[in-house]
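[recover] target loaded
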């Protein structure tokens, strides 16, 4: 009896062989239909279609209406363009400022519509500019490309002719070209002049033999010497012989102390006022020919109101001015110096945050050229390093041709104090 019941149970639950194949086919068809539905729903454009899908681009960049305008472009050449991404307003502004830096005045910049971009509502704009012949095309090319990329754009292609007289840059967003930029070296005129004060920090750590190349520079600069170092007196004597202006590069406590140690005689935040004053006076005695002072490191000390007020009191009778190295965004040095009647200014840019000659040269040129747009000039800081010296020597002839005037730091401080 149990044996018979077992056979009956198997017969009632077993799927008939004739139905197995149709069920498999049906189940497979359902899966295939689901996949096709998802593909159609998510990817409406055919893979073989060459038309750029608008939805994909519009998700990346919001569209708006704008005009290709700038204080540097001719009124007659300003074109109203619709459908340009809002992001390109910033890119155009950066582009025109970069063109101005390399000497393209407003009368030498022209814009032209080249028609709609295929598959999009945007228009391709050609921007042509003439620049002075004294400016190397390779550097002009680099400045324009950097300006566009730093403002959020992309460079799609670039073609420079062999003679270095013309370069064509295709710029846009992603691989979509929205600007065709043509630069020609055709002008014989010299651009507006600018004023630059160059300060070189960190002298005193290395011997005079290692930094003597700075003494041979053909333009005025200011040497910032660290007191209490092994070669402090040696480099001071060398600078005095060459009539090079000197300031005190006063060591101060950084935020990451003791990882970065400014030295035993540095200004620390936990020092009492009397000791801060004593150390400042000692540094002035060490470098009696100094006309000013700036901070070496000091991101913690220059953020401390009490410390900087005490430093101001210490240098008040000496007649020194103060240069805020701005090693932190929280610095109160300039404010406290001014509140205590000390002549004070701040640096405008550091050229050697990367120890690479190409980077330093480009940065030096860009900052120096920016002085033409400033009534108070530019205060540029570098450091006593071999690559910095080589880069300065490489860039100076070009800047000299461009009419950039180099002055001592004390001259720039006086100029700024009068403003």
């Amino acid at each position: 009896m149990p044996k018979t019941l077992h056979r009956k149970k198997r017969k009632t639950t077993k799927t008939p062989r004739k139905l197995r194949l149709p069920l498999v086919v049906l189940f497979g068809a359902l899966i295939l239909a689901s996949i096709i539905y998802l593909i159609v729903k998510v990817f409406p454009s055919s893979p073989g279609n060459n038309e750029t899908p608008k939805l994909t681009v519009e998700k990346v960049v919001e569209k708006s209406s704008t005009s290709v305008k700038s204080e540097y472009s001719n009124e007659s050449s300003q074109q109203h363009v619709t459908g340009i991404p809002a992001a390109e307003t910033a890119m155009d502004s950066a582009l025109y400022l970069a063109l101005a830096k390399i000497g393209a005045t407003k009368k030498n910049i022209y814009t032209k519509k080249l028609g709609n971009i295929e598959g999009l509502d945007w228009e391709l704009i050609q921007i042509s500019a003439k620049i002075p012949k004294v400016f190397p095309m390779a550097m002009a090319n680099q400045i324009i490309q950097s300006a566009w990329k730093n403002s959020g754009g992309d460079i799609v292609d670039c073609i420079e002719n062999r003679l270095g007289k013309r370069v064509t840059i295709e710029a846009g967003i992603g691989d979509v070209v929205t600007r065709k930029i043509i630069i020609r070296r055709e002008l014989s005129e010299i651009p507006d002049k600018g004023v630059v004060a160059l300060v070189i920090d960190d002298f005193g750590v290395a011997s005079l033999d290692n930094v003597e190349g700075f003494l041979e520079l053909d333009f005025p600069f200011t040497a910032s010497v660290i007191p209490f170092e092994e070669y402090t007196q040696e480099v001071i004597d060398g600078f005095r012989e060459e009539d090079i202006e000197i300031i005190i590069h006063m060591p101060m406590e950084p935020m990451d102390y003791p990882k970065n140690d400014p030295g035993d005689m540095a200004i620390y935040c936990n020092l009492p006022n009397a000791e801060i004053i004593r150390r400042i006076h000692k540094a002035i005695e060490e470098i009696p020919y100094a006309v000013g002072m700036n901070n070496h490191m000091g991101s913690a000390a220059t953020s401390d109101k009490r410390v900087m007020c005490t430093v101001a009191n210490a240098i008040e009778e000496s007649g020194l001015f103060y240069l805020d190295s701005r090693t932190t965004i929280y610095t109160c040095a300039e404010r406290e110096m001014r509140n205590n009647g000390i002549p004070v200014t701040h640096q405008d840019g550091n050229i050697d945050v990367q120890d690479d000659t190409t980077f330093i040269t480009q940065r030096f040129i860009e900052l120096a050229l920016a002085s033409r747009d400033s009534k108070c000039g530019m205060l540029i800081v570098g450091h006593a390093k071999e690559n910095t010296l080589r880069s300065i020597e490489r860039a100076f002839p070009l800047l000299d041709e461009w009419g950039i005037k180099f002055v001592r730091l004390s001259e720039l401080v006086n100029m700024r104090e009068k403003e």
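[recover] notes: The CA atoms of residues 249 and 362 lie 26 Å apart.
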